[in-house]
Design a protein that fits this description.
This protein has strands spanning 13-14, 29-32, 51-56, 72-78, 86-89, 98-99, 112-123, 126-130, 138-145. A hairpin with an 8-residue loop joins strand 5 and strand 6. The protein is built from no helices and nine strands. The strands form two sheets. The chain has a six-stranded antiparallel barrel with strand order 2-3-8-7-4-9. Strands 1-5-6 form a three-stranded antiparallel beta sheet, with no helix packed on it. By secondary structure, it is mainly beta. The chain has a domain at 46-145: Beta Barrel (Elongation Factor Tu (Ef-tu), domain 3), CATH 2.40.30.
Length: 157
Amino acid sequence: MTETRQTLRPLEVASSAPLSADATIAFIGHIETPWTLPEACPRQGSPDGPECTVVVNPPWEAALSGIEAFAQLEILYWLHLSRRDLIVQNPRHGDAPRGTFSLRSPIRPNPIGLSSVRLVARQGSRLIVRGLECVSGTPLVDIKPDRCRFTPPAPPG
């Protein structure tokens, strides 16, 4: 889910400190979902939610080799419509303000989204998945096999 609100709710605290720019992220594709507005996105993705498409840019298509072996994937994406300055948030679903790092809110200093999704199909450079919660056009950061289901091969004896 992404969010674009710029006004503060009661008891929220924003930072005026600039974020340092000591790293870069290369987007490797984008995500296509049914949602065009942040407020339409589900709060949490659901494994029985609508089919969405993770589109990997051509230079990275070969990196999908073997992905079909995993039923669950972790999709990391950049919540490009989110504000980045809130330190304390007052969530609509909560009973009191909380620190940003104690929430799954899209509003964070580095708005990286993470969804655990079910792989439905691979169609070349496109992964059809269920369980996303972001707007269509969201930049793709990375794809990983689900960490709970991934067992790396044992090193040779």
